[in-house]
C-alpha cells in the first residue's frame, strides 16, 4: 500500500503533478484544498467556515481538517494507495496522519517535496488567479499564504527527514522532467 505525501508551498505544482501520477500508479487522490472548495461551492456549513480561513490565507484549524481527512480516507474504495495533496500542513496534522495510518497497519511511504523558488511561486499563483479566478490567488493573500507556509508548514521538511521519508524534487523546469523525478521516487518505494 503506497501512501504518498506530495508536499510544497502554494503554487509548487502539487495538484498538477498528482493528477499526472494517480492513474499511472492506481492511487486515490485526496486534495484537501479541493475538498474545501467543493464544500464552499455547495455553501455547506463546513464550506462557510472554511471560506473564512481560506479568504484570509490562513489554515483551517487542525481538528476540523483531521476530521475531514479521516472521513475521506474512510470513503475510499480499496486501491493501491493514496496520494495526499495539501495534507499534512502542520506538525499536528503529520502526527495525526501517522497515527491514522498506523491504526490501519500502514505508514507514509514517501514525502515528495516540490521545491520551487519563492519568486516563481508568486508569479505562478498570480497567473493561476487570472485564469481560474480562485479568490485566494490575489497578491495580498498569496503573500499571507507563503508566510503561513514558511512558518507553519515548512517545519514538516525536517519532520519527514527525521522519519527517513523525505525526497527532494526540483519543482521548477519542464513539467515532464518534474513528473519523471516523481515517478522515479514512487517507483523506488514501490519496489522496496
Ligand atoms: P490548496 O488548494 O491546497 O492550496 O488549499 C487552499 C486553502 O485551503 C489553504 O490556503 C488553506 O486555507 C486550506 N487548506 C487546505 N488544506 C489544508 C490543511 N491540510 N490544513 C489547513 N488548511 C488547509
Low-confidence stretches: none
Into which percent range does the helicity of residues fall? 55-70%
Radius of gyration: 16 Å
Number of helices: 9
Summarize the biggest pleated sheet.
5 strands, parallel
Mean pLDDT: 96
The helix-and-strand class reads alpha/beta
The geometry reads as: globular
Q: Give the CATH topology.
A: Rossmann fold
Query: For the terminal residues, how far apart are their CA atoms?
Result: 11 Å
Give the beta-strand count: 5
CATH superfamily: P-loop containing nucleotide triphosphate hydrolases
Strand content: 5-15%
Strand order of the largest sheet: 2-3-1-4-5
Q: Which architecture would the CATH scheme give at its second level? A: 3-Layer(aba) Sandwich
- Order of SSEs, N→C? EHEHHHEHEHHHEH
Bound molecules: adenosine monophosphate
Under CATH at level 1, the class stands as: Alpha Beta
Q: Total domains, how many?
A: 1
Would you mind describing this structure in some detail?
The chain has 192 residues and is α/β, with parallel strands linked by helices. The protein has a five-stranded parallel β-sheet, sandwiched between helices. It has helices spanning 14-25, 32-42, 45-54, 62-75, 91-103, 118-132, 139-153, 155-163, 175-190; strands at residues 2-8, 28-31, 81-85, 110-115, 166-170. The mean pLDDT is 96. The radius of gyration is 16 Å and the shape is globular. The protein has one domain: Rossmann fold (3-Layer(aba) Sandwich). The termini are close together. The chain binds adenosine monophosphate. Residues 10, 32-33, 36, 53-54, 58-60, 65, 86-87, 89, 93, 136, 145 line the site of adenosine monophosphate (AMP).
Amino acid at each position: 500500500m503506497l501512501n504518498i505525501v506530495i508536499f510544497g508551498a502554494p503554487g509548487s505544482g502539487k495538484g498538477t503533478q498528482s493528477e499526472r501520477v494517480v492513474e499511472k500508479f492506481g492511487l486515490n487522490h485526496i486534495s484537501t484544498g479541493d475538498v474545501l472548495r467543493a464544500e464552499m461551492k455547495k455553501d455547506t456549513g463546513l464550506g462557510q467556515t472554511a471560506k473564512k480561513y481560506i479568504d484570509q490565507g490562513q489554515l483551517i484549524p487542525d481538528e476540523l481538517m483531521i476530521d475531514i481527512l479521516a472521513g475521506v480516507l474512510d470513503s475510499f474504495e480499496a486501491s493501491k494507495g493514496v496520494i495526499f495533496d495539501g495534507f499534512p500542513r502542520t506538525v499536528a496534522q503529520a502526527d495525526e496522519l501517522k497515527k491514522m495510518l498506523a491504526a490501519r497497519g500502514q505508514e507514509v511511504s514517501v514525502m515528495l517535496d516540490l521545491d520551487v523558488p519563492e519568486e516563481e511561486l508568486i508569479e505562478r499563483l498570480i497567473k493561476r488567479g487570472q485564469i481560474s479566478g480562485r479568490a485566494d490567488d490575489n497578491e495580498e493573500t498569496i503573500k499571507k499564504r507563503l508566510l503561513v507556509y514558511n512558518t507553519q508548514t515548512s517545519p514538516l521538511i525536517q519532520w519527514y527527514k527525521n522519519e527517513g521519508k523525505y525526497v527532494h524534487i526540483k519543482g521548477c523546469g519542464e513539467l515532464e522532467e518534474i513528473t519523471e523525478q516523481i515517478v522515479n521516487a514512487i517507483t523506488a518505494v514501490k519496489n522496496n
